[in-house]
């Protein structure tokens, strides 16, 4: 297996994908065993003098800001429907594994990249065809980037979380490409015109959101990395995270003890006070006879290619890159990352090692496990075989370690992220002018040195960083905001998961005469604001086999604590008549509402079709590809892909398209037919950001496929004594890649048992819980799981451990649960026609 490059919205790379070119690297292990430690040459001193004096720039010569390209003349012009070429440019596509020479072509509708690395018999470079292509409407962000300390690159981010790092021969070419992209006015581009990283951070309001606890520590650090130019595509500019904890030896991690947290006002090299004097003396006494090398505290960098490969040694493609860096062999076992406590202790005791961490420590436990069974050698003195990373005593497993440190940085750590140090001059922006080096061999050597040393990111803040509010201060501010806006209608309710002990229920009677089976709602923004300002869709099915959906009036202002009479208005009720498949149990899985609340997708018809209709009840089209009745549907976060499951045991991934952005027309084309089940498909989940399509079945399995290529990945089958009596009626997927399986076992005597299983996206079992009764529905929201059962119990659990943190009794079977986007309310639909709205009880007035 190898690490996939797909990311979620927090920029986590969570997924492993099958490595079809897997190499066990036995030759690299044998070469290492035949190599004595003193045969490895240290070229760091030699590399430090590679840069000639003529190529070293002073701080006044090195401009810290990009030119203001792209700000002028951006008037929108009507584009011809015919695709026309706007600009072409030679460039390099920079990836982890390679730097690919190619040609970038931008047209009025698409962006193309053609690979030019292949050659014919005469040695001439030729085009090998299309390497990638995407529509301009997919472009979300364009950032200026540096490559080898030169301001010559762009990084393009798409709405499906993919990104491309392109380096150009000269900064002027980059400016031309950037202006061309902006002149086309991509509809989903977040901003226009150039901004320096400092201006971009200020305009984003990110720091203020962090201060007010509106974003987590992890998301804040990840966004700072992105804005400052750190990227997964370049090992010398890999995202960097700090060591948060200093206790890696205790039996239990005591987060109430401030001593377990690192002092982030100091760089890692002087956490030990004994090292501080030596580092200061080294800085004061250093003097380059040639006057080229400036004074510096540390000769190594806190993040460079060697550091990343040190931590990611056990996971491809980093294993291959590590071997390439070590001249075709694994490094000696004693110098590998074999123990987390030993690694921290070595850095604490010496001033020469200043490695910080990488983001994977906080979300990817697989990088600590030698799942590929590489031969990593034996330690010199103890003769122990190096395999999985040795963890602190307070961590039960790699998964437990990752969960604990993620929870620490997500919730527990209250300090500021502030460090200050002076590194080797070759790592700073604008320090070296590669264009001044004419000798190609010399220039290549300098580029290699820059890659090995690492690159210091752009300084984002020049003023002191503000301190974060305490939880109490943030809660008082939210409470005060609620009390001050109760009379004007702009209510911002508190997060239900932050106040589980204060949850209160109130109801809206949707259908007093029919049995309500499920609810779907679509809106943008806060739930209560949505009830007041935008239409709210509520769908319910009656016992007479017809679908009724209600649309609240925008003229009336229903308040969620009172019954809404507008729901009973016949004018606002629409009926969808249809012949459902006989005996089919209608559930929320059979219905989808598009994110713009304009179209409805319905399955379950006798003719095996999926029908697309407007919210006024007009049928637009019927999609017929399954050989039996459709049992479940799901839509991805971007509204681009849909997935369907059927009685025919297959699933289909559909591409949703609206011609020319038409608001009154929509269609879908089948992309992939997915196989792997032996019985009826009960539930499907699709997540295009993680490139994951999940399906569960009555055969007791959950099958994982990819979205983009439809490839089979793995089958997850919960352990059971008698798998023939095992079914998986429902599944859920978190944005962090956690898979929740609701499994049901029916014994020969007729007794049923119910279980919740938690798996990682890579199939690793994490947690198990036994349930009291059958679930009606469940949903995952962040780090929490919300379930509703047939006895009317609405339960909120911690996702990682399934620990119950809140329970409400609604006294009637729960058919569907839904958490609003802002996490301010939980909606639960009961079988008796009531919509239960759960929110935080009215807060006390702030003092």
Automatic annotation (TrEMBL):
Annotated ranges, domain BEACH-type PH: 80-182
Intervals holding WD repeats: 623-664
Keywords: Repeat, WD repeat
Biological process per Gene Ontology, one example term: intracellular protein localization
The BEACH domain, residue ranges: 195-468
Single GO MF annotation: protein kinase binding
Spans through the membrane: none
Xref: SMART domains: Beach (SM01026), WD40 (SM00320)
Protein origin, superkingdom: Eukaryota
Region (Disordered): 55-82
Keyword Cell division: no
GO CC, alphabetical: cytosol; membrane
InterPro entries: BEACH_dom, BEACH_dom_sf, BEACH_Domain, NBCH_WD40, PH-BEACH_dom, PH-like_dom_sf, WD40/YVTN_repeat-like_dom_sf, WD40_rpt
Signal peptide from the UniProt entry: none
Protein name (record): BEACH domain-containing protein
Organism whose genome encodes this protein: Ciona savignyi
């Amino acid at each position: 297996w190898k690490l996939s490059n797909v990311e979620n919205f927090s920029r986590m790379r969570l997924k492993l994908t099958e490595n079809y070119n897997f190499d066990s690297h036995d030759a690299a292990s044998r070469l290492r065993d035949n190599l004595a430690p003193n045969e490895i040459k240290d070229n760091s001193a030699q590399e430090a003098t590679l840069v000639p004096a003529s190529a070293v720039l002073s701080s006044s010569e090195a401009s810290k800001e990009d030119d203001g390209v792209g700000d002028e003349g951006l008037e929108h012009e009507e584009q011809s429907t015919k695709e026309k070429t706007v600009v072409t440019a030679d460039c390099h596509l920079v990836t982890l594994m390679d730097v690919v020479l190619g040609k970038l072509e931008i047209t009025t509708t698409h962006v193309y990249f053609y690979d030019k690395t292949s050659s014919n018999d005469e040695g001439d470079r030729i085009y090998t065809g299309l390497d990638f292509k995407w529509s301009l409407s997919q472009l979300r962000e364009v950032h200026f980037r540096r490559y080898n300390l030169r301001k010559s690159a762009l990084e393009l981010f798409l709405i499906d979380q993919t990104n491309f790092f392109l380096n150009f021969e000269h900064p002027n070419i980059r400016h031309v490409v950037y202006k061309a992209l902006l002149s086309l006015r991509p509809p989903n581009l977040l901003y226009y015109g150039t901004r320096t990283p400092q201006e971009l951070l200020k305009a984003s309001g990110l720091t203020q959101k962090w201060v007010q606890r509106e974003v987590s520590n992890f998301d804040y650090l990840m966004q700072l990395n992105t804005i400052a130019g750190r990227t997964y595509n370049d090992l010398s500019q890999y995202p960097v995270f700090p060591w948060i904890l200093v206790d890696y030896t205790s039996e239990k991690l005591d987060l109430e003890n401030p001593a377990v947290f690192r002092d982030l006002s100091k760089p890692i090299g002087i956490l030990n006070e004994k090292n501080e004097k030596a580092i200061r003396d080294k800085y004061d006494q250093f003097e380059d006879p040639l006057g080229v090398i400036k004074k510096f505290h540390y000769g190594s960098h806190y993040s460079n290619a060697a550091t990343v490969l040190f931590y990611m040694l056990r996971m491809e493609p980093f294993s291959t890159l590590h071997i390439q860096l070590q001249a075709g062999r694994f490094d000696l076992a004693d110098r590998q990352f074999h123990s987390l406590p030993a690694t921290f202790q070595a850095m604490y005791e010496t001033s020469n090692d200043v490695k910080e961490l990488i983001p994977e420590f906080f979300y990817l436990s697989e990088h600590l496990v030698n799942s590929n069974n590489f031969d990593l050698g034996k330690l010199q003195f103890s003769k122990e075989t190096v395999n999985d990373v040795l963890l602190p005593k307070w961590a039960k497993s790699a998964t437990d370690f990752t969960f604990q440190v993620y929870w620490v940085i997500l919730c527990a750590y209250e300090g500021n992220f502030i460090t200050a140090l002076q590194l080797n001059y070759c790592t700073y922006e604008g320090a070296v002018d590669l264009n001044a080096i004419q000798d190609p061999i010399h220039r290549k050597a300098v580029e290699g040195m820059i890659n090995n040393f690492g690159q210091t990111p752009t300084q984002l803040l020049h003023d002191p960083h503000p301190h974060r509010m305490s939880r109490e201060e943030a809660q008082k501010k939210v409470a005060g905001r609620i009390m001050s806006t109760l009379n004007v209608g702009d209510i911002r309710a508190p997060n239900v998961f932050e106040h589980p002990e204060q949850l209160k229920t109130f109801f809206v009677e949707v259908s007093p005469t029919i049995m309500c089976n499920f609810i779907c709602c679509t809106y943008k923004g806060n739930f209560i604001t949505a009830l007041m300002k935008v239409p709210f869709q509520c769908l319910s099915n009656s016992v007479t086999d017809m679908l009724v959906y209600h649309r609240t009036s925008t003229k009336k202002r229903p308040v969620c604590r009172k019954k809404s009479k507008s729901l009973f208005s016949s004018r606002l009720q629409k009926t969808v008549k249809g012949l459902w498949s006989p005996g089919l149990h209608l559930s929320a899985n059979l219905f989808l509402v598009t994110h713009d609340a304009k179209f409805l997708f319905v399955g379950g018809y006798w003719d095996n079709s999926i029908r697309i209709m407007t919210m006024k009840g007009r049928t637009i089209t019927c999609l017929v590809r399954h050989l039996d009745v459709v049992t479940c549907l799901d839509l991805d976060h971007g509204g681009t892909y849909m997935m369907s499951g059927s009685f025919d045991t297959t699933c289909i991934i559909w591409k949703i398209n609206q011609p020319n952005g038409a608001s009154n027309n929509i269609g879908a084309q089948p992309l992939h037919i997915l196989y792997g089940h032996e019985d009826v498909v009960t539930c499907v989940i699709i997540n295009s950001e993680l490139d994951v399509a999940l399906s569960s079945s009555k055969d007791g399995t959950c099958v994982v496929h990819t979205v983009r290529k439809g490839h089979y990945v793995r089958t997850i089958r919960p352990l059971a004594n008698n798998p023939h009596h095992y079914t998986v009626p429902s599944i859920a997927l978190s944005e962090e890649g956690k898979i929740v399986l609701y499994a049901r076992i029916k014994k020969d005597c007729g007794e049923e048992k119910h279980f919740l299983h938690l798996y990682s996206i890579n199939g690793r079992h994490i947690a198990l819980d036994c349930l009291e009764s059958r679930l009606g529905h469940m949903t995952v929201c962040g780090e929490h799981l919300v379930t509703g059962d047939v006895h009317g119990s609405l339960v909120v659990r911690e996702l990682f451990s399934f620990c119950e943190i809140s329970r409400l009794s609604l006294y009637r079977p729960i058919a569907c649960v839904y958490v609003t986007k802002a996490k301010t309310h939980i909606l639960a639909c009961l079988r008796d026609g009531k919509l239960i709205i759960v929110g935080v009880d009215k807060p006390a007035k702030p003092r």
